[in-house]
Design goal:
By secondary structure, this protein is mainly alpha-helical. Helix content is about 45%, strand content about 5%. The chain contains six helices and two strands. It has a two-stranded antiparallel sheet with strand order 1-2. The longest helix has about 35 residues. The radius of gyration is 23 Å and the shape is extended. It starts with a helix and ends in a 33-residue tail after the last helix.
Length: about 170
Amino acid sequence: MYKTRSLVGLLIITAIILSICVYFYNFDHLHLLKKNGLNDSLMTGKKESKVKTTNPSSTENTKIKIDDASGFIIDTGLEEVRANCLGCHSSLLITQNRATRDGWLSTIRWMQETQNFWELGDNETIILDYLARNYSPQKGIGRRANLKNVQWSSFEKKPLDYRLWKE
């Protein structure tokens, strides 16, 4: 009887912890989607979301269609990106990053050299065109702007005190 109650209590505690983890996991992803301007389309099920264009000379809003399943922008090359990228990682890994065409090519080469990513053949041009068109840096900024006016801490090199290591 006591073992059964302990087991039930353990299962309840595990379920509570799991639900808290799922909540914060979803909260974090919603935060990233809001940051990228994609929250309306994914949360409400609508396929269109208003976001500002990446062209600095244009001040109008443009409607961008978002794929419900992946969260990618619907455009030429979407199927190739889904087929070759989502087998190994989440679409959020792509949508939260920005790179130039050369940056995306460098990332693909790194994955091929270190992660056993296959050769893309003719799809490489299609995928690079899609990524450069839809996930390129805005206003010359990559993943984040360069740090400015940073006051770095200086660390003094001190001799080790070997007395602390004695038993």
